[in-house]
Structure formats: C-alpha cells, structure tokens
Amino acid sequence: MRGCRPAPCGAAPASMARSSSSAFHAMIWPAAVNNPTRIGLPSVRASHRRPPRAGGRATAGVCYASQAVDLLPALCPEIVVRDARLEDCWEVADTHCGSFFPGYKFPLDLVLRIDRYIALLSGFTVPPGCMRTCLVAVNSNSVDSSFDVECGDPRDAGFQKYSLSRGSVAGILTVDTVADYLPRRGPMKQRRTGIAYIANVAVRKEERRKGIAKMLVQEAEARARSWGCRSMALHCDVNNIAALRLYKNQGFKCISVPEGARWPEPKIAKGVQYSFMMKLVPKT
User: Fold this and answer.
1) Among 112, 143, 243, 253, which is most buried by a count of CB atoms within 10 Å?
2) Least confident of 121-125, 157-161, 210-214
3) Which is the catalytic residue, given 117, 181, 197, 247?
4) How far apart are the first and last CA of the chain?
5) How many CB atoms lie within 10 A of CB 259?
6) Ranges for the N-acetyltransferase domain (predicted)?
C-alpha cells in the first residue's frame, strides 16, 4: 500500500511500516515531481461529474486511463498478473528487497529477505471487515524452476516440505483497505472505509519498461472495484518523477495536505518526502 528510490518500474516506495494487525506492510512506491499540481479531494470529486470537452479531451480530474488502456493490446502479453501464492513468497521478498534496498550486501541482504519472507507469510491477517492481497506479475515464458524447503524431522509427524518458485515473478504490488496510511476521521479517530491503498510496487530491473507496473496498478484497481471501494490512494516519493508520471497517467491526482496536519505516511529513510495521491474508482 517499498525502498530507496529506483526507477519507476522497479523500486520506488521509500518506506515500510508495520502495524499490530500485520507484519508485512507498506512500502509505498513514491514518485513525484518538483512542482506537482496539487488539488483538494473535493475538486477531484467535482471534476469527475463533469463531461469531457468537445474533441475527445477529458476534463481535468476525470479518470479515463483504465478505460482507454483496455482498448490497446498488452505491452507484454507473456506477463500474467495474479494473487501471490505460497510458493511465490521467497521471490516476492527478493523482489521487494532488491528493489527497495539495492545497496544492502551479504549477510544483511539475506537477513532482510528472510525477514520479508516470514513477514509475507504472516502478513495477510487484517482487521475484521478489511481486505488485503499481494499481486504478482508472473512471466509465463520463464523456465519453471523451484526448490524445496524442509522443516522438521522427516521421522516426525509435524515434518513439512515447501516448494518455492524461482525466476518467474517479475513485479509485485500490495493493495488493501486497512487504511493505516489514511487520516482517521471523527473525534473517535475511526478508520476510513471504501478506500483501497496501494503499496509495495516493485518490478525487477531486468523486467522494467514493459508496462508491468501499469498492469499491476490496473489489476489493483479491478480488485478495489470488486471490494466496493469508491477511491484509491497511495504515497509517492516526490523525487521519483517517472513513478509520478505513471500514476498520473492512471488517473491519480496529488491531494494537498492541510498545513500543520499530521497525516500518517510511510517512514523508511530520513528526509524522504511524499505526495499523497488519490483517484476515483470507475464503476465499470
């Protein structure tokens, strides 16, 4: 709903957070421009109701990106986006760490990957009424290879053997409705509902520039729609211009944060600033 600041289709989020409800949480793909155009949430909703101008040019704020892209052929037809499976966990952890923490060396990088792997296995628990899923972009043309992890004594009834895939996951994205990074509402500080939050967007270096990040975001939008969400949100590193461009092309708008407001945001490195972005989820 993420790393130090790589190129857009690979690593971008500059922060990760943990909450009591989940171990694996939010590395957000931040990306931004030096002087992003900022608008308030009310103006986004208002513009959504205005019809497009004559000539086919949509009014500012109208989110037509997902509809338009459906008319175009897939940029990378061998890539399939689906929910992460148990056997994908190690590759998801490897993609996450390799994108967001590329400077880490052995043994710290191995420790970090193991930590992410364990967190991923236990991180799908969410508060009642909330949803979360990890999406993976899988390269169907990659060589199907896997390795087994054995736990326990083979002579023991509790012995377990896990099969982990390798060389197939090209990109990852997490989307949820937990609202950990959305401002609470009301005097009781209640969680916001009806908003899907995107985090942990990362694409392997060798798989970038194929439209994989766009495919992941579009699938996240489809999930948000199936969950009944009315809008989507994310945080972008203000220095990641390419990622900001991707999100704007998908209909996201920068939302101005009131002066002095303490809205929650990911924290992973000192000095990193974020743009808070949202978009309305089209009904069809």
Assistant:
1) 243
2) 157-161
3) 247
4) 23
5) 5
6) 79-279
Tokens found for residue 72: 């175009």
Give the pTM.
Answer: 0.69
Contacts of 172 (CB under 8 A, 6+ apart): 84, 92, 95, 96, 134, 135, 136, 137, 200, 201, 202, 216
- What the block records as the tokens of 159 is 């012995």
How far is residue 15's CA from residue 273's CA, in Å, rounded to a whole number? 10
* Number of CB atoms found within 10 A of residue 128's CB: 4
Our answer to whether residue 64 is catalytic in this structure is: no
Helix axes 108-122, 89-100, angle to 10 degrees: 130
